[in-house]
Amino acid sequence: MMMKLTRTKAAVLGLVATAMAAPVFATHSWNGYHWIRTSGELTVPVGDNVDGTWDSYLRAANTDWNKSTVINSPLVAGSTTPRKCSGVAGTIQVCNAAYGRTGWLGIASISLSGGHISQGTTKLNDTYFTMAQYNNPSERALVTCQEVGHDYGLDHQDTDFNNANLGTCMDYASNPVGNEHPNAHDYDELTTIYNHLEAAAATVFGRGSGSAPADVGDTPATWGKAIGFTRDGRPDTFQRIDGPGQATITHVLWANGEGPRGR
């Protein structure tokens, strides 16, 4: 392989408040979630656990996000198994597998500890990408780029599948052509999110903050409570409390017409 928010109550409000302390965020930060940046660029390794079908898309997404002035993440060999796609402290692990008729094309999960992202994962669901509707370069590129973007702390610029494309992978689009890469607003947002330095001793999993969180499963039952919804009422953001000051947040990109409904 190539080297590859009703929100919950007091504990979660404290976690979110910590995450949003200091910098002022622009329009599509994912609730202020961000990695610790102690100096220079953010160099969180991106672990390649994808097969040859996805390698070029992961390389392209990694190159695209590294065009930001605040990110310079090396693409390294993966440290997990694609089926489980366990989080690894201090990294983003990207995986593909046939996860089944789960309803989703891709999910991005981040672990929070002491108000910062401590690890991230992206899952790409081959069960859907073998279907003609999704088995095309633009769809694969958009989903890979979008899920990794979430792992850096970006939210969507737009969640309407039926309006004009914004020319960014952080846009929901019924036709993904033209939305395969980040745009200037994504890079501006990353600059805003990471506009401050923090002490290297800030808490992350594996550094005295307790055990790492449980793995993220493939269904809403393992993701915790729905805290965000699409325009048509499908939950697309979930929060699971893993311990004091610790949580896992999962962003879901549903396949067309799939996913649970109702708030």
Strand content: 15-25%
What would you report as the Rg, rounded to the nearest angstrom?
Answer: 17 Å
- The poorly predicted ranges are 1-26, 203-210
Q: Which oligomeric form is depicted? A: single chain
Distance between the termini: 42 Å
Counted beta strands = 8
Largest sheet: 8 strands, mixed
Q: Output mean pLDDT.
A: 85
Helix content: 10-25%
Order of helices and strands: HEHEEEEHHHEEE
Instruction: Count up the helices.
Output: 5
**SS content category:** alpha/beta
Read across the widest sheet, the strand sequence of neighbours is 2-1-3-5-4-8-7-6
Rough outline: globular
Could you describe the 3D structure shown?
The radius of gyration is 17 Å and the shape is globular. It is built from five helices and eight strands, in the order H-E-H-E-E-E-E-H-H-H-E-E-E. With 263 residues, it is of the alpha/beta class. It has helices at 10-19, 52-65, 126-129, 137-151, 184-193; strands at 46-49, 75-77, 92-97, 104-113, 116-125, 225-229, 235-243, 246-254. The longest helix has 15 residues, at 137-151. The chain has an eight-stranded mixed beta sheet. Helices cover 20% and strands 21% of the residues.
Write the layout of secondary structure elements.
Blueprint: H1 10-19, E1 46-49, H2 52-65, E2 75-77, E3 92-97, E4 104-113, E5 116-125, H3 126-129, H4 137-151, H5 184-193, E6 225-229, E7 235-243, E8 246-254
Parallel strand pairs: 1-2, 1-3, 3-5
Antiparallel strand pairs: 4-5, 4-8, 6-7, 7-8
Helix pairs in contact: 2-4
